Amino acid sequence: MATVGERLAVLDFEDFAARFERTCADKLGAVPSIDHAPPEWLRSALDLYFDGHDVRVDATALDERGTDFERAVWAALREIPRGETRAYADVAAMVGRPGGARAVGRANARNPIALLTPCHRVIGRSGALVGYGGGAWRKSWLLAHERGQKII
């Protein structure tokens, strides 16, 4: 996790430390010190998420650094309800760029805020769980968790 004040700028999975550092360098210009506790709102949001609740984060709590298009895609991702999925083409249509499925894929790949900007809810048109930087197994796990399915 990297914050700018109380605003979340980068959130990644623990097993992706190198990617976290690259994202921080790209988005913030440096890798911040991680010797501080997360903001209380973030701790609460993550607890609620893993306890099975729908969590909607207001964009004002985020320090999103990306292009206008990327920020529009990330906002659209936050509108996808917990446990539901949308195809890349659907998200492209949501942001007014029909035919922009590949651009949505690139914006997803640059999403710096895992879980709370839920790019894991975007799937291929065929329904395949494609294109998740955290790995297909994690995407599958997150969607099953969100649907309340027993995970073995």
Please explain how this structure is put together:
25% of the residues are buried. This protein starts with a strand and ends in a 6-residue tail after the last helix. A hairpin with a 2-residue loop joins strand 1 and strand 2. The chain has 6 helices and 4 strands, in the order E-E-H-H-H-E-H-H-E-H. The model has no long low-confidence stretch (mean pLDDT 92). The chain is mainly alpha-helical and 152 residues long.
Short structural summary:
By secondary structure, the chain is mostly helical.
Features:
single chain, Arc Repressor Mutant, subunit A, 152 residues, 6 helices, two-stranded antiparallel sheet, two-stranded parallel ribbon
Structural topology:
Blueprint: E1 2-4, E2 7-10, H1 17-28, H2 40-50, H3 68-77, E3 86-87, H4 88-94, H5 101-109, E4 122-123, H6 136-146
Helix pairs in contact: 3-5, 4-5
